[in-house]
Amino acid sequence: MSPTLTQGRLRQLGLFGGLDDASLGELGQALGAFDVSPGEAVFHEGDDGRDMFVLLEGEMEVLKRSKRDHETRVAVLGPGDWFGEMAILDVLPRSATVRAIAPSTLLRVTASDLDGLYRRDLRSYSLIMMNIAREMSRRLRVADGLLAELVANVLDEYTRPRR
Length: 163
Prior knowledge:
Blueprint: H1 7-11, H2 21-30, E1 32-36, E2 41-43, E3 51-57, E4 60-65, E5 71-77, E6 82-83, H3 85-90, E7 97-100, E8 104-110, H4 111-120, H5 122-159
Antiparallel strand pairs: 1-8, 2-7, 3-6, 3-8, 4-5, 4-7
Helix pairs in contact: 4-5
């Protein structure tokens, strides 16, 4: 196992929450970590992809392009966060661009890695999928709150009596 992929290090990552030592050991040996420099994109909106990434060290930004071709930062990710899971789950093109804003180390988890885990350890696979689902639910709640606030602000602006 590489120094950054010990069982203890993997156990600290929410994606792998609930996995036993044997499963963490296997994942530590199978998964690969790599470095990304500031300004380097891990992937671009619209790219095909069959992998997701866990941010071990550093900082990444998530950028979304509007219909008017304006790129906006929608999130900043730090150590322990993961991204790209939508491409594994729905097999559609990437929904956003993710770019390093600090020197970063990423762990790549491919659809093939997860398929192999499914075939040999259904319990661990299920835990990882539940961890992904919980995080996606949390993100949806945040997005719902932001959207509700935006709509309320716009409605207030346009329905407020003019003086």
